[in-house]
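Lab notebook, bench 4. The sequencing result for the construct came back, and we need a structural model before the next group meeting so we can plan mutations. Quick request posted to the team channel:

Model the 3D structure of this chain.
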Amino acid sequence: MAEQLRAYGLGDVAILQFPADGRIFYGTQRSRPPWDAEVGDLTEFNFGVGPCDKQTVKNARAGFELDCVNMTAKQLASYEAMPIVLAEDSEDANVTAETGGCG
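Done. Here's the predicted structure in token form:
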């Protein structure tokens, strides 16, 4: 960008660098810690109302193949498909949360 601006005839072009560690404030804005996302997705597993044992649920959460015939999986968001789904200032996590009962 700086080279292009110089090519346009702007002589006083400089790249300024500021620390961004999540602690330093610039005015009223806290600096954001830098990070580069590599992968991220959000999948909803629905185990229905049929037979579904706790080991099957545990396997699903660990990412193993499921043997519960009443299970459906729906991908709600994918960083690979649409990087904008990753929220600004979000942090990495591997989270599984139950939203209802099983069978």
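The chain has two domains: 1-34, 35-103.
Will bring this to the meeting.
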